[in-house]
Amino acid sequence: MDAGLSTFLVAVAQVVGTLIAVLIVERFGRKILLVISDFCMSISIFTLGAYFYLEEHPNKFAPQTMEDLGWLPLVSLIIYIFTFSIGKLYIRKTQLHRCTK
Q1: Does the structure show a pLDDT above 70 at 22?
Q2: Which domain holds residue 52?
């Protein structure tokens, strides 16, 4: 996939995640958003790490399998950035803003 398109998709995920956080933070509360964000971020980073581990050890899997999973790093990164924007990024920004008042 083109690097420019990948960068654009990650940026869109961050913007959409921040907009969604603005809309749902009061409905669900900060604590539940942080828990969901942390869980999803850890799963996506684990998936990304597993992909790179499998890429470094190609003799354990068929080479065709790794070619079929070429989309996995981008999707993992998009999920990570999206959930980071919903929980960690937005909530920390609002808390920092409240503390400096």
Answers
A1: yes
A2: 3-99
Whether residue 41 contacts residue 76, with contact meaning beta carbons closer than 8 Å, is answered with no
Question: What is the C-alpha to C-alpha distance for residues 90 and 20, in angstroms, rounded to an integer?
Answer: 10
The CATH number covering residue 66 comes to: 1.20.1250.20
In whole angstroms, what is the distance from residue 1 CA to residue 74 CA? Answer: 9
Number of structural domains the chain divides into: 1
pLDDT, tens digit (0-9, with 9 covering 90-100), for 53-100:
888 887 766 667 777 888 999 999 999 999 999 888 877 766 666 666
CB 89 within 8 A of CB 38: no
Q: Six-digit token pair at 49? A: 């790490």
Q: Where are the alpha helices (DSSP H) in the chain?
A: 3-28, 30-56, 63-68, 72-84, 90-99
Tokens of 44: 């996506």
